[in-house]
Amino acid sequence: MLSASAALSLHRLAVHELEELCERRNRTRWFDIIIETREWLTAGAETMRVLFTVVAISAAVTWLMRSTEIGEWELGRWFTMVLLLALAVLVFNSWMPLAIAEVAGAAFVFYSWRILWVASVFAWPAIVASN
After folding, report:
1. Residues 6+ away with beta carbon under 8 Å from 21
2. Which pLDDT tens digit goes with each residue over 11-52?
3. Can you give the pTM of this predicted structure?
4. Residue 57 vs residues 3, 48, 54, 60, 103: alpha-carbon distances, Å
């Protein structure tokens, strides 16, 4: 959810809000760094979003299937699992991050940009390959 919130906050970033926040906190240099590296920060956040979603879905499927053999699954249980996973992905990958980006996007970017920078460093091969 954090990487999804970061990606949406960076996409919808209100530059003037971020600039005001940086000035209030006496971090005007941070504003310049964030604006200069915005594309890399966004790509890193998007990459982490995809990776964390895959890991979360894999963990959920493993946990849900741990007690039964695949041959024992009936259609109703399978449909319920797919529905619950889809709902969880929507909530944690779309709805909550969108709310965070709308309410506190600039603040979220201000406080998390260093973490996003580290994520962009780890995602560098994927970022370079996509450009």
Report:
1. 106, 107, 110
2. 888 899 999 999 999 999 999 999 998 888 888 888 888 888
3. 0.76
4. 15, 14, 5, 5, 27
Region of 111 on the Ramachandran plot (φ > 0 left; ψ -120 to 50 alpha; else beta): alpha
Q: What is the mean pLDDT of residues 108-121?
A: 88
Q: Are 43 and 120 in contact (CB under 8 A)?
A: yes
Check: CB of residue 84 under 8 Å from CB of residue 42.
Answer: no
Q: Are 113 and 30 in contact (CB under 8 A)?
A: yes
In 3D space, the residue among 22, 39, 40 whose CA is nearest the CA of residue 31 turns out to be 22
